UniProtKB/TrEMBL annotation:
Protein name as annotated: 3-deoxy-D-manno-octulosonic acid transferase
Origin species: Prosthecochloris aestuarii
Record-linked Pfam families: Glycos_transf_N
GO BP, one annotated term: lipid A biosynthetic process
Signal peptide per UniProt: 1-17
Subcellular location: Cell membrane
MF term (GO), any: Kdo transferase activity
Highest taxon of the lineage: Bacteria
Alphabetical UniProt keywords: Cell membrane, Lipopolysaccharide biosynthesis, Membrane, Signal, Transferase
Pathway: Bacterial outer membrane biogenesis; LPS core biosynthesis
Length: 424
């Protein structure tokens, strides 16, 4: 292991030096380094972390999506009555900025740069009993120091796709040693578990399921934020299109123009900056379609106009008032979260690029979702669902059952945290 750490630190030092040099002319890189300077200081200033004999749990998430998967686990541990302190670290600015005031954690910080010095200081001050890493984002010096300090390391939501970088000939040796640092690896499927065993020699991997099912289920229990919208759209067939990009929006608007008042359309773009919203407004205008912005509607919404949600944070709740859901990204790199609408028991539609989303492919296989490749396809699918409510209801029920049958991952991960070794 020492040889592995030696070579890792040579590589990391070279990368660190190169990015430091580039940060002189890159505000984004400069910010990357600046925001991470205070992580250890934040630990020192939070005196409550040092008090008592509480179980100290360090949860690391690359960004907000991974943190949301950890959230049900955090809540389950809290509800167990165990006296604990929970520190959450993020790699991405978006994750940190959106969740820095999260009440579920005792402290939220940026993950420090993965130097040996930073790792020693961070772990010495934090003194974690448990380290929970969600899905990926492995910083070897910090993991090594945590393990050396006596912490138990858990990886949850692990996936091993056939084209994974973990399996590339030049990288497999590296990742075999990374995964050896973990005491327990929870995978999302039996297929992933077999690959961890056979290809990465990670015998501590067991199948737990995908924490996202528990995440979307827990979040679906609260929809208060959109009750006024729900009232305005009562009695209408509503299509909520979430996490959309330009190609998705062109397809949706072309079909909406043909359907007229047969359906109410709510579009939630993946990005809500002014440039994106202005472009979407232009797309509506060029087709002669009336639209309005959520931020400018007050409490009155017209279901006959396209409603553009120009505010982040409640897409999952919006799906709860939909009759049908469209999930964006399928005409780009990959479809976004298809479980968020499926949990509400409604049909789900998305574009052709979904091969890096096992749950999207499973939804299609179980006849809970439909893939479309063009606006003509979308037109046919929507007309079928609008004109045949019984078919819409049947497909929706399958989607809801699909999610419910896969719940329980949270309990398994929480059990490992509270009773180490009991899941093996």
């Amino acid at each position: 292991m020492k040889a592995f750490l030696f070579f890792y630190n040579i590589g990391f030092s070279a990368l660190h030096a190169a990015t430091r040099f580039l940060s002189v002319s890159s505000p984004r890189l400069k910010s990357f380094f600046t925001v991470r300077k205070g992580s250890v200081q934040e630990l020192l200033q939070n005196t409550s972390l040092q008090a008592g004999n509480d179980l100290v749990i360090w949860v690391h998430a690359a960004s907000v999506g991974e943190f949301e998967q950890a959230r049900p686990v955090i809540n389950r541990v809290r509800s167990s009555g165990t006296s604990c302190k929970i520190v959450v670290s993020f790699q991405s600015p978006s994750g940190y900025n959106l969740r820095k005031s999260c009440s579920d954690a005792d402290l939220v910080v940026y993950h420090p740069l993965d130097t040996r010095k930073n790792a020693r200081e961070f772990i010495r001050h934090l003194q974690p009993d448990i380290v929970l890493v969600m899905r990926y984002d492995f910083w070897v010096n910090h993991l090594w120091q945590a393990r050396q300090s006596g912490a138990r390391l858990i990886l949850a939501g692990a996936v091993l796709q056939d084209n994974s970088i973990y399996l590339k000939p030049c990288m497999r040796w590296f990742y075999q040693r990374v995964f050896r640092l973990f005491d327990r690896i929870f995978t999302v499927s039996h297929h992933d578990t077999r690959k961890f065993h056979d290809l990465l020699d990670a015998g501590q991997a067991i199948t737990a399921g995908d924490p996202r099912y528990d995440q979307v289920w827990q979040r679906s229990r609260s929809t208060d934020v959109i009750e006024n919208l729900r009232h305005n759209y009562s009695g209408h067939t509503v299509l909520v299109a979430g996490s959309t990009w330009r190609e998705d929006e062109r397809c949706l608007l072309d079909v909406f123009k043909k359907l007229g008042n047969e359906i109410s359309l709510i579009i939630v773009p993946h990005e809500t900056d002014r440039k994106t919203i202005h472009h979407l407004e232009s797309e509506l205008s060029s087709r002669g379609i009336a639209g309005s912005l959520f931020s400018q509607c007050g409490e009155q919404y017209n279901p006959e106009e396209v409603l553009i949600i120009d505010k982040k944070g409640f897409l999952a709740e919006l799906y709860s008032m939909a009759s049908i859901a469209y999930v964006g990204g399928g005409f780009g790199i990959n479809v976004h979260n298809t479980l968020e609408p499926a949990v509400y028991g409604i049909p789900v539609i998305f574009g052709p690029n979904h091969h890096n989303s096992p749950e999207a492919e499973a939804l299609i296989e179980e006849e809970c979702a439909t893939e479309i490749r063009s606006s003509a396809d979308l037109n046919v699918v929507l007309r079928n669902l609008i004109e045949h409510p019984d078919k819409r209801e049947s497909q929706g029920k399958k989607a809801g059952s699909f999610v419910r049958e896969r719940l329980g991952t949270t309990e398994l991960i929480a059990t490992e945290i509270l009773s180490p070794g009991s899941t093996g």
